[in-house]
TrEMBL record:
One of its GO terms (biological process) is carotenoid biosynthetic process. The lineage of its organism: Eukaryota, Metazoa, Ecdysozoa, Arthropoda, Hexapoda. It catalyses: 2 (2E,6E,10E)-geranylgeranyl diphosphate = 15-cis-phytoene + 2 diphosphate. It comes from Cephus cinctus (Wheat stem sawfly). SUPFAM superfamilies: Terpenoid synthases (SSF48576). Its EC number is 2.5.1.32. This is 15-cis-phytoene synthase.
Amino acid sequence: MRKFTPFLRPKIHVQFFRDASTSYKQSSAEYCMDLVRKSDYENFLCTLLLTNNIVPAAFAVRAFNIEIAQIQDQVHENNIGIMRFKFWEDSLNKIYDGVPPRSPIALELHRVLQRYKLSKRYFKRLIHSRAERMGLSTFADLESLEKYSENTVSSIYYLLLEANGIQNIHADHAASHLGKAHGIVTLLRSIPHNAQRRVIVLPRDILMKHNVSEENIFRGKSGQDLSNTIFDVASQAKQHLDKARKLKSDVPKDAKLIFLPATCIDIYLEKLQKVDFNVFDPSLYVRNNLLPLHLLRRKLFSSNY
């Protein structure tokens, strides 16, 4: 079986919050937290373990990202999707002008900006990079996938570093590599969902290199050709994860907790390797009930990411 170079098996605790369906009226902060819990559970757990001073900003940033990321799946016409992206771009300008729309995410982001200095350009990257891909599925090559991951995932890490007041070139470089790794893994995990919609998201150059049958992907069949494709793409994610970790000794201690999602990437890549890079293997999509413990141990007993 093909193997990556050895990587550490990472290691969080579970906190429970009142469900959104209860009768109390949610604050904007609670709304954002609940949205992240329901839509991005792994990052929800990682956010719980951040230092208290940046947790509100982290939930607001991640909730904003979820709202933007879901647009393409929620609309059936490109024009409607573009209109929604434009709405959020206008809303972002209003938020920074101090007159946010009356929506929970906009209100919470406005509240957070009273305390934290977060660059508007990173939020705009989240909007523009997804808007540019409206109606598109596959990437031309790995380089375009990495660029997309930089804009949509690394930007979140940059915002969290800003929330913590960290200005460090090594932390920025680690955020760039980790964001690319995270973005690539997110794409790999989305393959079965997209295949059901008859959408292929893998880079075209790698698909052509291994002569992959699109119909087999739609049918959820993982032959050797697709396995080789997944190996190539996953190896790129692993390389970026390794590069982020090589910078660990130069990254400020407060920044390392922000990079805890590296643990989730590690666990997925290890599981993917064990099933010989079959992205359709059901074991990859079973929630890991030990993840909270792994993350907590990583926070308490190691150098975090």
